[in-house]
Design brief:
The structure is a single chain. The protein is α+β, with helices and mostly antiparallel strands. It has one domain (about 10-185): Ribosomal Protein S5, domain 2 (2-Layer Sandwich), CATH 3.30.230. About 35% of the residues lie in helices and about 30% in strands. The protein contains 4 helices and 10 strands. The strands form 3 sheets. Strands 1-2-4-3 form a 4-stranded mixed beta sheet, with helices on one face. A 4-stranded mixed beta sheet has the order 5-6-10-7. Strand 3, helix 1 (about 40-55) and strand 4 form a beta-alpha-beta unit. Helix 1 runs parallel beside helix 4 and helix 2 (about 70-90) runs parallel beside helix 3 (about 140-150). The chain starts with 9 loop residues before the first strand and ends in a 17-residue tail after the last helix. It catalyses: D-erythro-1-(imidazol-4-yl)glycerol 3-phosphate = 3-(imidazol-4-yl)-2-oxopropyl phosphate + H2O.
Length: about 200
C-alpha cells in the first residue's frame, strides 16, 4: 500500500492521547490483509469480521489504558477508523448508500449507512449481558458513535432478532462491513451523489 500510487484509496493515521496510542493504515481496495491488535481479543475478532466483509486491508495497532477498562481503547479505535475512511475516500464520487440484513444463526441485524459528511448514529440493540469475552457490550455503541462522527457517516443499526449476544454482535460487525463495501464503491454517476450538489 502506498499513498502515492494513483487510484489507491489509502489512509494512514497516528493518534496519541494520555489514554491511548493508535497506529492505523487502511486500503479500501485491498481485501486480503488484516493485522489487528487492540489488546481486546473479542474486539479484534469483530474488527477482523468488519474488514473481511468490507473487502479492505487494515493494520490497526492500539495500546490503551485497559487496566482501567476497555472504553477509551474501543472509542479511540472508532475515531481512528472513521478518520481513515474519511481520508481514504476524499471527495471521490461513491455510491454513498449501503444497507443489508445480516443473519448469524438465530441473530439478525439491520445495518444501513449513508456516507453523507454528517455523523449521526441510530443504535437500537438490547444486550443480555454486560460483556462478550473482554469487550463491554456498551462499548459497541461507543465504537460506532465515534466512527460515525469522525467518518462523516449516518449509521443505523438495529437488532431484529437474537438470543446470543455473540451472534448479535457478529451480525452487526459483518453487516456494517457489507454495507460499507456497497457505499464505498466508485460511482458511475456523473457529478454529485446528492441533489444538493455535494455529498453532505
Amino acid at each position: 500500500m502506498s499513498k502515492s500510487t494513483p487510484g489507491v484509496r489509502y489512509a494512514e493515521i497516528y493518534r496519541e492521547t494520555s489514554e491511548t496510542r493508535i497506529q492505523a493504515v487502511l486500503d479500501l481496495d485491498g481485501g486480503t490483509r488484516r493485522d489487528i491488535v487492540t489488546g481486546i481479543g473479542f474486539f479484534d475478532h469483530m474488527l477482523h469480521q468488519l474488514s473481511f466483509h468490507g473487502h479492505f486491508d487494515i493494520g490497526m495497532a492500539a495500546e490503551g489504558d485497559l487496566h482501567i477498562d476497555d472504553h477509551h481503547t474501543v472509542e479511540d479505535v472508532g475515531i481512528v477508523l472513521g478518520q481513515c475512511l474519511s481520508q481514504a475516500l476524499g471527495d471521490e464520487p461513491i455510491e454513498r448508500y449501503g444497507s443489508n440484513h445480516t443473519p448469524m444463526d438465530e441473530a439478525l441485524a439491520l445495518v444501513a449507512i449513508d456516507i453523507s459528511g454528517r455523523g449521526v448514529l441510530g443504535f437500537e440493540v438490547d444486550w443480555k449481558r454486560d460483556q462478550i469475552g473482554d469487550l463491554s457490550t456498551e462499548c459497541v455503541r461507543e465504537f460506532f458513535r465515534a466512527l460515525s462522527t469522525h467518518g462523516g457517516m449516518t449509521i443505523h443499526i438495529r437488532k431484529i432478532a437474537g438470543e446470543n449476544d455473540h451472534h448479535v454482535c457478529e451480525a452487526i460487525f459483518k453487516g456494517f462491513g457489507r454495507a460499507l463495501y456497497q457505499a464505498t464503491r466508485r460511482s458511475e454517476r456523473r457529478g454529485s451523489t446528492s441533489t444538493k450538489g455535494s455529498r453532505d
